[in-house]
Structures
1.
Amino acid sequence: MSTLEIVDLHASVETDTGDQPILRGVDLTITQGQTHAVMGPNGSGKSTLAYVIAGHPKYRVTQGSITLDGTDVLDMSVDERARAGLFLAMQYPVEIPGVSVSNFLRTSVTAVRGEAPKLRLWLKEMKEAMAALSIDPSFAERSVNEGFSGGEKKRHEILQLELIKPKIAVLDETDSGLDVDALRVVSEGVNRYRESGQTGTLLITHYTRILRYIHPDFVHVFVDGRIVESGGPELATALEDEGYEKFIGAARAGASS
Amino acid sequence: MSPVMVPATDHAPLVVSYDPEAFEVPTGREEEWRFTPLARLAGLHEHPQATSTARIEVSAPSGVTVTDVDVAELEGDASAPPIDRISAIAWAQASTITRVVVPAESQIEDVIDIVVDTPAGVSFGQLRIDIGAFAQAKALIRFTGAGVFAGGIQVHVADQARAAVATVIDPAPTAVNVSRLHVRLGRDASVTSSVISLGGDLVRMNASVEYTAPGGDAEFLGLFFADGGQHHEHRVFVDHSQPHGRSSVTYKGALEGEGTHTVWIGDVLVRANAIGIDTYEVNRNLVLSDGARADSVPNLELETGEVVGAGHASATGRFDDEQMFYLRSRGITEELARVLVVRGFFADILGRTRIPGLAESVMTTIDARLGVSDLVAEVLGDGDDGQS
């Protein structure tokens, strides 16, 4: 049973005027089989949490720890984290001109699994995974994310999730920019992989809409760089009705006391 | 970008001569020399004497003849005269020309393999390939060695003949290679020329094509990979002087490392009588690290508007931190990410050279320069070579 444990995590971003603190003491434990939703207003630092877990070089961890099954994640390079079983579905996937989706996926899967899948089996696996996400087969020969629509980019992220099969998946605003049909297809993909029981999922979102499709076991409210309240699915319902204002006020009061 | 209209023949050579003294020693401020680090030319512009001998070895399939001929035999209309001081010196200093002849109407399947070895010191060499009318042939010319070399390759493709010529410049890291490749096309003749520069300290390659009759078709491909402070300069001159010709120029370069510099100059001249021609030239560069610089200058001069097509494009892109982060976040190591991106970038060029086995050997060389690992070889070598 894999566990990702985040303890008292502080991180800052480099700016022209020095380091700007963004994460201010995050505590969160995600175990395989669980789904956690982290919800927060714009600018709360929830996407930074996703990037820090993945190891983006722009952010500097100043305090605290992240471990995967007891192993120090912060000590690993970006690609080592991925090979250790962490996956980040990005809010803004990056275009890689000249690299075909097919080559990219096969290279990635080979790196994570530690051996190249047999070509024939691999082509079958890739085609089936693409079909399940209603991705046209011609996508395999297109350059990674180049000229993809918003929905195509997100489906491509979830395609990677299903092929890479991580232990812990972080989905950063995967719902943003999706129409209802695309949201349903993407959510079905996430649910298919969740049902395998192999993954712990950290779903980062601004809106409750995606939680109608992907049902979390735990909901955390994220304000000013930390979790200010945790609960079950009912917390999402409360957020949908009342918004973040109550928590923002409480967080500010708490920070100033 | 829209075509740049400039005075007629602005980019054709102003002086052509077999006499080196007909050309001034450049100061570095001239348009055609302003990108070149003259100090790294090892004195080729002054009065260089050969201190070494370039060895030109031809492995010719049956039906192809190889002879050494006196340079005087090929002066005048028999070849294109030198266009600058170094090419004139290289002509004057080469006592003989290695001449490869593919007889008319012959179909040569095997590649004519030519090695130009340039040992330490200064050496000069001239190579001439004649493809007879209606013949078909392929040639691979490879530059090796550690010396300073200046020379010329002329390829004459007679009426309706079809040629594929690849020139691979991959000498030792100390080498200087200043070469000229000139193609002369007869009526309805076609050529695929691939110029690939990988090695050396300084490479300056001037590739040109002239049309002696209507209907000639030139595909000019170029690939350059430079790192560690190398200077690779590719200049192309397409001289459309006959009607109904076609030219397609595609050069791609990847570069990395402090002080590394690549230059691409693409000059296309469409003379007044060259009606109905179709030309397109493009240069793409991929900068893999800070400190490397790519210059790219396309020039298209149209003296007639009666063309089927005329265009050019140039773009230099960067393999940036966000792309690297994306690939690494999928478990792909830094070195593998670079190989993946560079392979993808060069795949279309290498797929069009018409020289069997060339794509694999060039990619193997580039992989090694990028620091390939066993895992890379395993991923990329298993029947899924590059882009399909």
Note: The interface with chain B takes residues 54-57, 77-79, 81-83, 87-88, 90, 93-100, 102-104, 106-108, 110-112, 115-116, 119, 141, 143, 160, 164 of chain A (CB under 8 Å).
2.
Amino acid sequence: MKTPSPADRSAYRGTVWFQAALLGGATLATTSLLSLGDLATRDDIALRAEEDLRASIGQVVPAAIHDNNLVEDQHTERLDDGGTITVYRATRDGIPTALAYTVAGPGYSGTIRAIMGVDTQGRILGVRVLAHTETPGLGDKIEVLKDDWILGFDGRSLGNPPVAGWGVKKDGGHFDQFTGATITPRAVVKAVRSGLEFFDRRGQALLAGDVDGSRTDPVPATTRGDR
Amino acid sequence: MDYGDNARKALWSNNIVLGQTLALCPLLAVTGTATNGLGMGLATTAVLVLSGALVSALRNLITPEVRIPAFVLIIASVVTLLDMALNAWMHELYKVLGLFVPLIVTNCALLGRAETFASKNPVAESMFDGLMIGTGFLLVLVALGATREIIGSGTLFANAGLLLGERFAFLETTLIPGYRGFLLLVLPAGGFIALAFLMAAKRAIDRRVQRRRGAHSRLDVATAGARPA
């Protein structure tokens, strides 16, 4: 019966037990619904996340120089500052050709995360910003969709420009800042430079697949989905 | 229910933003561009229709004493399910809209419609009401987004191709080439200012319509009531 008569209502609907059971039942129903939704979408979401990761790696490591799936040739390594870095290795015919990894730095309003690809000589293949919360219309010129600025890193390395030049022009460095936004490009330049310094320290060992020489956590391909 | 009257109220006179001044949190957060406004409007409309249907279907089961937490549960579940479904099966759309979907729960318009309409009306009418309220919200979002985008950056529907697919890339226009931009309108403060002008414009139109109809007395009563004594 859809609408109980007033007599029915007074009989049980007004009691606190009914209210509690009703709310408990509603919570149980919605929680089950959400669990079902999670079960139905979990695999697809993990797949999409991996596709996204592969697409962003693909932007900084040209397809021509590798024939492996970089997402499967990854391992995570602990940094001195307590953070971790996940490095993806590109190989061609079994020979290592490049590394890709994400770098991060504090921007004007929140952390800027970027992914960069570096070849065996320590030259930058490409940098792309993955996530940021910079001011729209000012700081968001670091996105490749909005401006070519980020392409200015291509081919650069720690010696080109010299270390003193790894800053924005306002600080006497080599890289342009944007009109009205200096902090954002400064943060990106600093993050990229720290990424190159990381390569300087660990790059050759990582390219050689020598991950035992430091405190590292190799990530077996089978456990990737749980991370 | 008079569908025409319901639609007229939802879209104009009792519009969720311009008439009721609700839903301002998501409104001001996403209206930097017309495209973002459109995306938020579509997502919110979908949730309004779905939660309206659910609340209405369960209205005879849920007792008045626990209705508010029950409605909150329903709305939050619908939003979460939508978020997961978009992420899994409409990933391109999710990349653009994903940021806005969780913001929908902060939209008090949803609880407001569940309480004042869906909990008292049949399923079909509640879904229609959700659709109309959502459309009214969408129109304000797009109008505010377009205003801020045109004055703030000199473009209109920037990145629409990303949201709606390549076929809609033609919507992207640069109205003022070489425009340096007017940052105030891009920042949140500009959202408040633009919204104030939008509301003032609605009032001005209402007043003109009233005057044309010659209904001076009704207008006087309305404005006198709004003025602090």
Note: Strands of chain A lie at 74-78, 84-92, 95-106, 111-119, 124-131, 216-218.
